[in-house]
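From the shared-data thread, chain only:
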Amino acid sequence: MSERQIAQRRRRAREFEAFVAGAAPRLLHAATLLTAEPAGVNPHAQQLLTSALAHTYAEWDRLRGEDPYDRTRQELASRFARGAWRHHKGRGGVLGRLTPQERLILVLRLYEGVAEEQTAALIGLPVDRVRAICHRAVATMRSAPPGPPRAPAEAAS
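Structure, as C-alpha cells:
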C-alpha cells in the first residue's frame, strides 16, 4: 500500500470519527425512541445505530457532498423498518405505546424534523398516509395513559 493510500485512509478515519463524535448522541436517541427502550438500557438501539454507522462508513468515500447525517438517519430508519417486527412490543420507552410504524413516522417527523414528503418517500407510503399516521400517533401520546403498547389489531387502522 502506498503512502498516499495510507494517508487517505487515515484522513477518512479521522473524518468519520469526527462525524460520529458529533452525530452519534442524537442518532442514538432517535434509535432509542424507535426501539421504545428506556434511555439507559437500550441494547437494540445501540445495535441498530452501530449497523447504520457501519454502512455509512462503508459508503463514506461515495457520499460526494451528501450529508452523512442524513444518510445515516436514512439507513437507521430503513434498518428499523425492515426489522420492525422485532421491536413491536415497547420496552418501557417513552414511545412504547405506539406501533413500530407510528414510532418511525413520529421520530422522523417530530424528532428529526424530516418533511412529510421525505418521510413518505423514505418509508414508501403516500404523504396523506404519513400525515394520518402521524396525527394518530400524536393523539395516542396525548390521550393514552402510560402503559403497554397497543395490540396489533388496534394498530392496523
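Residues 3-35 form the longest helix (33 residues).
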